[in-house]
Amino acid sequence: MYLGVDYYPEQWDLDMVDEDLDTILELGANTIRIGEFAWCRMEKEEGQFDFSLFDTVINQAKAKGLNVIFGTPTATLPAWLAKKHPEVLSEFENGQKRSFGGRRNYCFNSDIYKDYSTKIISALLTHYKEESAIVSWQTDNEFGHEGSDICYCSNCHNKFQKFLQNKYNTITNLNETYGTIFWSQEYTNFDEIPLPLSTIATHNPSLRMDWELFLSESIENYSKFQVDLIKEIIPNAEVLHDFSGGGLTKHFDFAKVAAPLDIVAYNNYPVWGGQKEPVPPHDIAFNLSFMRGLKQQNFMITEAIMGAQGHDITGYLPRPNQAKMWSYQAMAYGCNSLLYFRYRSATKGAEQFCYGILDADNVKRRKFYEVQSFFKDICQYENMLYTPIENEVCIITDYQSMAAFRIQQQSILLDYDQELKNLYKPFHKNNIGVDVIPSEADFSKYKLVIAPLMIVWNKKFQTRAKEYVKHGGHIVFTYRTAVKDVHNNLTFKKWLPTNYDDLIGGYIFETESLQEFDCIPLKGSEHFENTTATAGVFREFIEPTTATTLFTYNDQFYDTYSAITENHFGQGMSYYLGTSLVPEDLNKFVEYLLNKVNIQGITTPEGVECIKRLDSNGKIYKFLINHTDKLQHVLDDILEPYEVKILG
């Protein structure tokens, strides 16, 4: 188990290292993470590599028994490279080059940048390939963060056109697939195809989907290039990448970038500059579950918050024990190693107000002792934290579907990320573990599968879904399922949801986008007889064939149409939510599902989590986590504000 801090010795006098490392040891840490933003110190001039600063740090760390996680420094290129090759810098949509300064301002499709990346990584890895203190190598830093997942430069334009040529082979195939006869957009050559820059009205949805796939592939390729290079030089190297949040809003598929990695790492910021308060507990839990789901294995956190954070605008200061509580929550959800960002606050540069364990005055205060107490306590549970989590429910994410809603939102209220978190919340409320997994992952082991907003259909997933239900599984679909094909086109002469009408036992008659969250009344039947409910965002009018209606719409024109249905299929059951239920009614529907699949939750007060974990010997532990600023009574125990107890 790695417990430690993010340490930036290049930002301080080198004679401070020995004292710093002693203080880090005093915390109870065993690991430091270094190097990710120090290219200019490793290669001050082109081809002149100098790792002496990090030799000193690593030698001193090793002498004190500290492990090292070393980051490749490619997230921040040196000034001499930007001056010599300004073409490596990425571009905004308006054609303006992103200025040198800031970070993550290179183009993933620049062959020149890849060449320079190869040189610095090769020199770094060759220099340290025998260094036993380095336990893991981190690639770059937070791919796609802060808008760096999009570039509109000529490199990207040229490679996008080649991407399309490789995909469609002939321009005729592309024209037919896109339907470019619409608005007289037929191309005669691939070099005529534009980037989807701002225009009058909107670009072709198929073009925009391919652009999303191209953006993702660009980052996938650059990431894999780094992993492969590290493995070539140090075959037994353990390689990780530190993902930022927002996995369902970025322009790349996190799961595909994670595939070649040994470890998924996450930078966990429940609150950031300008926020009045942290995001809700279920939101944090969803993000942690999403990270664990990328490879369906436990993960690590490379940046845990302790102080207030922000670049130009600072934010909420975590209350006493609150940041420590978030660290426990991460461990409960599958994190097995954790480092805090950062050891000490910077006095210079853009992150002066990203407060660390120590502030710039270098005085040990509350935050220091909170970290110390966390490290001392959590290291007792290493066996349990390395044991895989086995949940009975999963929520499926799908990159192409997310991209399709970004391209055509359809309802002004429809937010793919938020809708998935809304569906996660009732399970979280009942303290039921949920895996958040990509659509390519195997879901056959789960009792209950939630497949929300999968607007893009593909035959492989549909086959797996039908086999799952045939053999006794329960699956929940939502409105806007299987509307588009993989090219982001509607399907001709097919009932909606495309190729699912047998599975859901019905078809969609008509649809409507809504402008409120709570504007549609529903009337219950069967189990929900004499029950009313409310919905909004979007609605589809379901015409059942074999399905049973659980709710119908209860308004003047559409009271004969089903809103929510269930259908026996083989030995299992499918459910279709034709609209977005308000939270209290969604809670009732989830309770119904849990009873159907015989999953029981744990009742706790609002804002209190109870997460069960097993160790490798089958011993049960319970994390009791109080997210509130109030004293809470739970399971015959008492929790102080933001207190966590691990019972075993």
What keywords describe this structure?
8-stranded parallel barrel; globular; 18 helices; 648 residues
Describe this structure in words.
The protein has 648 residues and is α/β, with parallel strands linked by helices. It has 18 helices and 26 strands. Strands 11, 12, 13, 14, 15, 16, 17, 18, 19, 20 and 21 form an eleven-stranded mixed β-sheet that branches. Helix 10 links the parallel strand 8 (263-268) and strand 9.
Major beta sheet, specifics?
A: 11 strands, mixed
Radius of gyration: 26 Å
* Cα-to-Cα separation, first versus last residue: 20 Å
Count of individual helical segments: 18
Secondary structure tally: strands: 26
Average the pLDDT over all residues and give the rounded result.
97
Shape: globular
**How much strand?**
15-25%
- Counting helices, strands and paired strands, the structural category is alpha/beta
Helix content: 25-40%
Low-confidence stretches: none
Could you provide a short overview of the structure?
With 648 residues, the chain is α/β, with parallel strands linked by helices.
Question: Topology of this protein?
Answer:
Elements: E1 3-6, H1 17-27, E2 31-34, H2 39-42, E3 43-45, E4 48-49, H3 52-63, E5 67-71, H4 79-84, H5 111-128, E6 134-138, H6 154-168, H7 171-178, H8 205-233, E7 239-243, H9 254-258, E8 263-268, H10 281-295, E9 299-304, H11 322-332, E10 335-340, H12 366-378, H13 382-385, E11 393-397, H14 399-407, H15 416-429, E12 434-438, E13 448-451, H16 459-470, E14 474-478, H17 501-504, E15 506-513, E16 520-524, E17 532-544, E18 548-553, E19 562-569, E20 572-577, E21 579-581, H18 583-596, E22 608-614, E23 620-626, E24 632-634, E25 637-639, E26 644-647
Parallel strand pairs: 1-2, 1-10, 2-5, 5-6, 6-7, 7-8, 8-9, 9-10, 11-12, 11-13, 13-14, 14-20
Antiparallel strand pairs: 3-4, 15-17, 16-17, 16-18, 17-21, 18-19, 19-20, 22-23, 23-26, 24-25
Helix pairs in contact: 5-8, 8-14, 10-15, 15-18
